[in-house]
Design brief:
448 residues, mainly alpha, Fumarase C, Chain A, domain 2, two-stranded antiparallel ribbon, two-stranded parallel ribbon, 5% strand
């Protein structure tokens, strides 16, 4: 196998294995992106006269052949190739001879891997955004269906005040929609085309970076060629940080679902099809899927710290350390999307035990409401508080449904404002559909 950096000598096999790492495996996910970037780059080289129209036609045909082979699972990236970029160029050279060797003019593997990851991340972030909205929609339906079902609110895990199933679900719904805004910010940061930065310092040719960026469907060119390479790892870390926020919410929600579905509470019932059993205890139905979501949150957060700690002390320009940021990014995107999808399944199948929720609203959770009622009648708050403290044993249970309906202020149990979330979900779905269509159209044009 010819390496892109070949200088006529053999590298030590142990060093080769160590430096290649898992790139040749991870890069199977990047073949389509590398083909897209190569077609755009070759088209630009033809425009500035580095390639003839006939050479461009042959290169484009060979690149689309690689894409077709990959879609059929027949394009192989070997460890000796090191990465997808080498595997593709070796294929071009084998098929086209000297013409295949011409495609690498004016680019480095540095900006090549950058553009591959940017394209891959664009596609995966859009999928994550869709998954966020799918779970948000499930929570909205669940909240609307159960908005008048009371349940105890808790602080310090202890009984606190009257709450509702609708308030609980609506809280995670709104949090996810905030997370979506963070993901959008990461998407915007990622939506910059780095091609043309080469080895961090540009090239002495009149390359058309804007043309390449437009062909690939990027929002803009990443201007400064040194920053383009310096931003490797930074963008990945930003994406993982935002994904981490999603996973923290999913972890908290999973923890709630586990606690609220144990027999001692029994507010919720997780369908059997989402529960696994024990190899020794016949009675067990385990919420393993939720426990794994809780654990996988740590995977994504660890991926963020792995990337940010890898890049924080690096000097300007390309450094091989950046290779270690690819795996965590790909893993973080995959784990987050999968976790969102499985949580949506659980919420869609989740059942509420209304009777247990009402029964759990014991007299003491109405203590705060009682003190507020006294204050509303003119008693100083501290006096009302102390009066209720002294008479805690005498506090009577109220109708919990009537209690939650009384809180009609913005965001209260009697005024969840779900219509606001519904409007946002609708607008966000339209925005994502537009982005997906524009991106798909750009990639499709490359094939023509």
């Amino acid at each position: 196998m010819v390496k892109l950096w070949d200088k006529g000598y053999e590298i030590d096999k142990g060093v080769e294995k160590f430096t290649v790492g898992k790139d040749y495996i991870l890069d199977k996910k990047l073949v389509w992106a590398d083909i897209a970037g190569s077609i755009a780059h070759a088209s630009m080289l033809a425009k500035i006269g580095i390639l003839t129209p006939d050479e461009l036609k042959k290169l484009k045909g060979a690149l689309l052949e690689v894409l077709e082979l990959d879609e059929k699972g027949k394009f192989e990236i070997k460890m000796q190739d090191e990465d997808v970029h080498t595997a593709v160029e070796n294929h071009l050279t084998k098929k086209l001879g000297p013409t295949g060797k011409k495609i690498h003019a004016a680019r480095s593997r540095n900006d090549q891997v950058l553009v591959d990851l940017r394209l891959y991340t664009k596609a995966k972030l859009l999928a994550v955004e869709e998954a966020v909205l799918e779970l948000a929609g499930a929570l909205m339906i669940f909240a609307e269906k159960n908005k008048t079902v009371p349940m105890p609110g808790r602080t310090h895990t202890q009984l606190a005040m009257p709450s509702s199933v609708g308030l609980w679900a609506g809280a995670y719904l709104e949090s996810l929609l905030d997370d979506l805004e963070l993901i959008k910010a990461a998407y915007e940061l990622n939506d910059q085309c780095p091609l043309g930065s080469a080895a961090s310092y540009g090239v002495p040719l009149s390359i058309d970076r804007q043309m390449v960026s437009d062909m690939l469907g990027f929002k803009k060119v990443q201007n400064n060629v040194l920053y383009a390479n310096n931003s490797r790892g930074k963008v990945e870390a930003a994406v993982l940080a935002m994904l981490g926020q999603v996973m923290v919410d999913l972890s908290k929600m999973a923890n709630d679902l586990i606690f609220f579905s144990i027999p001692e509470t029994g507010y919720f019932m997780i369908p059997e099809k989402f529960c696994t059993g024990s190899s020794i205890m016949p009675n067990k139905k385990n919420p393993d899927v939720l426990e794994l979501v809780r654990a996988k949150a740590n995977k994504v957060l660890a991926s963020y710290y792995q990337v940010i700690n890898t890049i924080k002390d690096l000097p300007s320009g390309y450094n091989r350390d950046f290779q270690e940021t690819k795996g965590p990014l790909i893993k973080g995107l995959a784990v987050t999307e999968a976790s969102l999808n499985v949580c949506a399944l659980v919420i869609k199948g989740l059942k509420v035990n209304k009777e247990k929720c009402i029964k759990a609203c014991v007299p003491e959770i109405f203590a705060t409401d009682k003190a507020i009622e006294l204050a509303a009648k003119g008693m100083p708050w501290r006096d009302a508080y102390q009066k209720v403290v002294k008479e805690l044993g005498k506090v009577k249970a109220e109708d919990p449904i009537a209690s939650i309906k009384k809180k009609k202020h913005i965001g209260g149990t009697g005024n969840l404002g779900l219509e606001k979330s519904a409007a946002k979900i609708k607008a966000d779905k339209a925005d994502i559909a537009k982005k997906k269509k524009e991106f798909a159209n750009a990639l499709e044009k490359l094939k023509k």
